[in-house]
Amino acid sequence: MAIMLVTGAARGIGAAIAIEAARKGFDVAIHFGHSRERAELVAETVRAAGKKAITVKADLGDPASVSALFQEVDARLGKLDVLVNNAATDHLGEFSQIALPDINRVLTVNLVSLMRCCQEAILRLAPKHGGKGGAIINISSISPRTGGIPGDVVYTATKGAVDALTLSLSNEIACEGIRVCAVRPGLTQTEMLEAAIGADGLREKARQAVPMGRPARPEEIAKLVVWLATDDASYVTGHALDVAGGR
């Protein structure tokens, strides 16, 4: 039995990852920040695939909540094998006008709490802490390479930091049998992106900017993430892999 924790798994890419993981044999801890009802719907789909699922609430705007999140997974599901850091937030606007509390919220959720999740995962995965190795997969973005959509400076900066963290951390803990990779989606049909530029805007942006001419479906991102979590990717670490339709 392998256990995966997916943060921000009540919707979008995170939900797709949780469901694909169940299809590939993982029991899944589904973290959510707000919508318990939607998280439970994802859990029902996981269970329908014949795997165990729990839902766990934690506010990743408060890094102190991360320890409790992992402890609940330990108690209710078991010892972790894979962490997927998917949870993220955004604050669109002209950069010079964004208030410090809004900057800090994006930095905290997208980077500081992600770091704390990595720390807690290492304490469970590393052999020197009683673990047997495993994988950490960070959901990044192609936005640091493209500059992101207009008004998305803070989010883009955090994703560039996630890429740097992925490489540096992978070098540090490869000797512990822990692989660390990032997956960098391009334009994807998610509620967060559609809220930013609209469903029609997303389709038009993809038509103009993506060689394949369309946005990704969350399931297309999820398949790469789950592959990285399996032994099929046993010699892959330190890489940030684009899923961007050729963009």
Structural class: alpha/beta
Terminal Cα span: 37 Å
Low-confidence stretches: none
Total domains: 1
Elements, N to C (H/E): EHEHEHEHEHHEHHHE
Figure out the total of helices: 9
Please give the order of strands in the largest beta sheet.
3-2-1-4-5-6-7
For the record, the CATH architecture stands as 3-Layer(aba) Sandwich
CATH class reads: Alpha Beta
Please bin the fraction of helical residues: 40-55%
Question: CATH H-level name... which superfamily?
Answer: NAD(P)-binding Rossmann-like Domain
Proportion of residues in extended strands: 15-25%
Shape from CA axes?
globular
* Overall mean pLDDT: 95
User: What is the CATH fold-level name?
Assistant: Rossmann fold
Give the radius of gyration: 17 Å
Total beta strands: 7
Indicate the topology.
Blueprint: E1 2-6, H1 12-23, E2 26-32, H2 36-48, E3 53-57, H3 65-76, E4 82-85, H4 100-125, E5 134-139, H5 143-146, H6 153-173, E6 178-185, H7 191-197, H8 199-209, H9 218-229, E7 240-243
Parallel strand pairs: 1-2, 1-4, 2-3, 4-5, 5-6, 6-7
Helix pairs in contact: 1-2, 1-9, 4-6, 7-8
